[in-house]
Amino acid sequence: MNELEKFRKYLVECEKGVATQNIYVRNVRSMMQEKGYTLSKEWLSKYREQIKERYGTSTVNSHIAAINQYLKYRNIEWSMQYVRIQKNSYIEESKEFHREEYDRLLDACKTDERLFLAVETICSTGIRIGELKYIRAEDLKSGSVIVLFKGKLRKIFLPDLLVERLTEYCGHKEIKEGPIFITRTGKPLDRSNLWRSMKRAGKMAGLESSKVYPHNLRHFFAAVFYNQEKDILKLADILGHSNIETTRRYLVTSGKEHRQKINEMNLVK
């Protein structure tokens, strides 16, 4: 077992998701391949400046997060400093998802029943794509499922209509137990499968590609729930956030609505 394989094993023990494992291993591998690589403060400080010239701030911080995890794995007590990011009050309009666009996406998914139901499940419950495997046939009768993320369990309630549709789907697919969303070989549907299928459906629906990805459905759920309930603490609980600031970021809009309200104030005569 080489060093990176050992590091991945450590990440598994830390209960990091597969996607996080892949990113961390890839970023640490990139660091190791740099000329003169050594785990010294001086070298890593120079490396930090190099990647700042190559990438945007978020990507740089992704590399730093991976390196810091690797330093922890190596029992090195110090860590690299992240690049500060000025908080943005608004998101780009090209990423803001709306009800009409969601409806169009669902219409485009109707030729693929599994995709249609997966999109509805994520969007109507707010679960992460990695939690889709916890939607199991034997739990449909109770109308709720237990999901595990980073060592924490939480209960997710399923809308009644979704339960009906999933029950019908399990019936004609002869799924009696285990994950409902599976591949032809019986394995749980993975992130890449769903991502590609959603992109194709989004293109058919005439939607901007930047808006169509599984995690954006989770953000859309958060926005709809908050607009209806105005309860950010309950929303954080549903989403599985331990930090409410994370939940606040889910509620950031493009500013289009804010601009409209400013204009409606009619204070410029």
TrEMBL record:
One Gene Ontology term from the biological process aspect of the record: DNA recombination
Cited InterPro entries: DNA_brk_join_enz (IPR011010), Integrase-like_cat_sf (IPR013762), Integrase_catalytic (IPR002104), Integrase_recombinase_N (IPR010998), Tyrosine_recombinase_XerCD (IPR050090)
Domain Tyr recombinase: 92-264
One Pfam family from the record: Phage_integrase
Gene Ontology MF term list: DNA binding
SUPFAM superfamilies: DNA breaking-rejoining enzymes
Record's keyword terms, sorted: DNA recombination, DNA-binding
PANTHER family listed in its UniProt record: INTEGRASE_RECOMBINASE, PHAGE INTEGRASE-RELATED
Protein name: Site-specific integrase
